[in-house]
Amino acid sequence: MARKMLKDGEGAEGSYDYDLFVIGAGSGGVRGSRTSAGFGAKVAICELPFHPISSEWLGGHGGTCVIRGCVPKKILVYGASFRGEFEASGLTVLCKKWIQSNSGGKSMGTSTTTGKSCWKTSGNIYLQELAITSDEALSLEELPKRAVILGGGYIAVEFASIWRGLGAEVDLFYRKELPLSLKFILTNSIYVNQLSKTADGIKVVTDKGDELIADVVLFATGRAPNSNRLNLEAVGVEVDHVGAIKVDEYSRTSVPNIWAVGDVTNRINLTPVALMEATCFSKTVFGGQPIKPDYKDVPCAVFCIPPLSVVGLSEQEALEEAKNDILVYTSSFNPMKNSISKRQEKSVMKLVVDAETDKVLGAAMSGPDAAEIMQGIAVALKAGATKATFDSTVGIHPSAAEEFVTMRTLTRRVSPASKPKTNL
Hints:
By secondary structure, the protein is of the alpha/beta class. The chain contains 12 helices and 17 strands. The chain has a 6-stranded antiparallel sheet, with helices on both faces.
């Protein structure tokens, strides 16, 4: 079958067994295959043999997100949230009273502890022998009672929430001032110098001489593109220093008929972004609709407990790009369900607005259902909504989401020459 492909803006004829051969059946690969087939392309797709723990030789249809990422992780987040949900609903008290009345008056009781937060690493650490990655964390046979996590990104904070929510003691070590700009308890400038195996578990030694014993040490310090075995140099495909495939704004590599989408290009490593890139590829190459991926106002969420979600520009980013002053509106409140348990856990919301145009530049939320709410806010930002649009929108009551359309009082006005008080 002959198929025209885009080459420097013009079609190029060729005869092949397939119109599209896809390497990698992750989110981007599967979406690109399906949408290209929808345009009439004959498609083949290949993937490494399945295994829950990935390597250069093992993978599986579905990729990181489905097998060892977003999907199984969020199911664990649901499970880890139950204890807090019971407490917020008041059912914990009822269950405790029931247990007392049915156990001769003996109370089983509950206990909570607060994990520490620190991190910076130095020295040589033997990862394979003494620590695990998020792949192995999803395949543990039993819940660790004590866990040390190195990293300050999505995975680190999410697994800290999962294990802590399930009852483990968790110590989170991170490099920057704050992980994800969240307000964890801080111990400044502490480095991990050594890991060693002991009879009691894995000993973690800091540069201050502090020692921790853990059942599990998790390295959540990012993933590298799995491109080493593709022999890309042989055909002239350029990669960067970490192995990410270099592409242009249409996702085309240095070889005109080879394209790349998803995490292997190391742009925005999110599943929905890979889906967008793959759809744009299919439209461009097989649909006759050349279109570039649009990375403006991409929403994202961290499924920690409570969850955090953002879209658009942060206050810092807005000030860096702005020609005008920035207006910041915030709201902080205790969710309604906490009124039953008296649990003190605030939800926080924020809008960043251009003072001259009134356009909403960014939004952020930490609290229950943050991701669900932010998806709708993302549509508004994509449509160019102004603060006046938000203000004129009728809220849904009682709900947390209505706070985004009832923030009338200005929290602060910041000029581009000054520094913001927060990075959230």
